[in-house]
């Protein structure tokens, strides 16, 4: 675990020693985030809660084998997503988890009509670029209704896109953490995130206009 920060090494040592206060603090820090990510995979909040509980058992049972090749956070979420995918298969959900490996293709992320055609000046450039939100009142951008629009749009995304945008933009994971937690390549992560953000942005454009 030499590559881990000293504070994280102390936390791992505390968990291995059975320190209940360290474990409770970890659950308090990551538990809500884990529930939101698990909810992207399974059919209900109740099942997501069971997935999170099972993942924590996996953490406790596996902490002795944690080698520190990734951060503790990434390792925990790798356990969570593997648990969630297994549970989804058991539920018989028709969730295309193969899409996490980059097999997903649900059409262009942005409407092709918004780009100039081959017979126009500057082919491939924007003909109808996304509007700037610079002048929009900050209160409106942060209003509860706007956040509801974002949440509803994420809920409509294909599962792989929903998981990636939730981890990146809602939960603050960086690209490497998402790739390690979901076992996907950087290219796959970037494409999934671009598609998801494009669809959410389109919904926001329609709402704000």
Question: Any overview of this molecule?
Answer:
- By secondary structure, the chain is an all-alpha fold.
- The protein folds into two domains: 6-91, Orthogonal Bundle (Rna Polymerase Sigma Factor, Chain: A), CATH 1.10.1740; 99-208, no CATH class.
- The chain has helices at residues 6-16, 20-39, 45-62, 72-91, 138-141, 144-156, 159-170, 175-182, 186-208.
The N- and C-terminal alpha carbons lie at a distance of 51 Å
| Poorly predicted tracts of residues | none
Number of strands: 0
**Category from helices, strands and their pairing:** mainly alpha
Domain module count: 2
Count of DSSP helices?
9
The share of residues in extended strands comes to under 5%
What is the ordering of alpha helices and beta strands?
A: HHHHHHHHH
What is the helix fraction of residues, given as a range? 55-70%
The overall pLDDT average reads 81
Tell me about the largest β-sheet.
none
- The rough form would be described as globular
- Cα-atom radius of gyration: 20 Å
For the structure shown, list the relevant keywords.
209 residues; mainly alpha; Rna Polymerase Sigma Factor, Chain: A; 2 domains; 9 helices; globular
């Amino acid at each position: 675990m030499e590559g881990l920060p000293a504070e994280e090494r102390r936390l791992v040592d505390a968990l291995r020693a059975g320190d209940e206060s360290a474990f409770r603090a970890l659950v308090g820090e990551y538990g809500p985030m884990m529930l939101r990510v698990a909810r992207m995979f399974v059919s209900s909040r109740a099942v997501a809660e069971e997935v999170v509980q099972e993942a924590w058992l996996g953490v406790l049972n596996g902490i002795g084998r944690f080698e520190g090749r990734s951060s503790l956070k990434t390792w925990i979420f790798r356990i969570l997503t593997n648990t969630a995918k297994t549970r989804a298969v058991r539920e018989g959900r028709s969730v295309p988890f193969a899409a996490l490996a980059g097999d997903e293709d649900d059409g262009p992320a942005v409407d092709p009509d918004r780009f100039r055609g081959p017979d126009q000046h500057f082919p491939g450039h924007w003909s109808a670029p996304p509007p700037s939100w610079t002048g929009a009142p900050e209160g409106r951008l942060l209003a509860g209704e706007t956040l509801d629009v974002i949440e509803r749009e994420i809920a409509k995304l294909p599962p792989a896109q929903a998981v990636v945008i939730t981890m990146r933009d809602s939960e603050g994971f960086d690209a490497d953490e998402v790739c390690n937690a979901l076992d996907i390549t950087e290219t796959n992560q970037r494409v999934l995130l671009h598609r998801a953000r494009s669809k959410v942005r389109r919904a926001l454009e329609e709402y704000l206009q």
